[in-house]
Amino acid sequence: MTGGGGPRERAAAVIVNFESGPALARCAADLRDAGVEELVVVDNGSADGSVHRARADDPDLVVLRPGANLGYGSGANRGVAATAAPYVLVCNPDLRVSGGAVAALVAALDDDPGWALCGPLVRTPAGDRYPSVRHFPTLVDATGHALLGLFAPGNRFTRSYQRAELDRAGDTVPVPADWVSGACFLVRRSAFEAVGGFDESYFMYAEDVDLCWRLGRAGWRVAYVPAAEVTHTQGVSTDRHPYRMIVEHHRSLLRFAARSASGWRRGLLPLVALGLAVRTVLATLARAARGRPPAPGALTEGPDPTL
Fold this sequence. Notes:
Layout: H1 7-10, E1 11-17, H2 23-33, E2 39-43, H3 50-57, E3 62-64, H4 72-81, E4 87-91, E5 95-97, H5 101-111, E6 115-123, E7 133-134, H6 139-148, H7 156-161, E8 175-177, E9 179-180, E10 184-188, H8 189-194, H9 207-217, E11 221-232, H10 242-260, H11 269-290
Parallel strand pairs: 1-2, 1-4, 2-3, 6-11
Antiparallel strand pairs: 4-10, 5-11, 6-10, 7-9, 8-11
Helix pairs in contact: 2-3, 10-11
């Protein structure tokens, strides 16, 4: 099945921005080059001139200013509501979108009407594949990743959770996924609206996991499209408040665990809470040991692949 029109007619884009500096203008320019006409920036209270710079380069850019930092999912919901195309690309501002990436994502949704959402191959600035597509972890993998991921990221539990088998080069065929990173994905509007969009009780982190999980429960599927490629600079804005972000990350994980657990697994939630508390302390110590890199940056999803 192939829908009429190309990316220009079928895909809008929403960029959720927070003090991204010049990255916002570059991302917007990439999306324009990809044929995106309906482009909305939701600015979560930036004071760094990033929106002014982007509007100077692109006067047709639509900018929504909620007046406060609503968080990632809440901002994205407002951006999607301000668009009309059948597909919407939701992304961070610190992305470079390669030629053909948007078209490849559009083609994936056109070709399989059962897919609600698809994510691209995300590369780091060094060219490595970022683990942006993951399994919903089993209890064993979740425990192993939580205990070992911070200090031994090559352990088998983390590799299983982060789908290390996708590191192989040359694959271009879309594959099913449990969830993909909210840093960049294309979603079918009808599916997004049917599940109520992002859950706004998440301020930041895990809202992408939760969205994909709810889509799955509603009968939709999620895909990873390696033929679509973006480059993502991660975690610079979050490094301005690194310890708050670590706490927020683990709080969001606990929220998702409480929502998604069923049956006998609900009885393990106190242990999950304890494990996440311990991991928060370990992540804080690891972050303190790394130091704080100076740089302006952008709001990102998943500043550290070990999280």
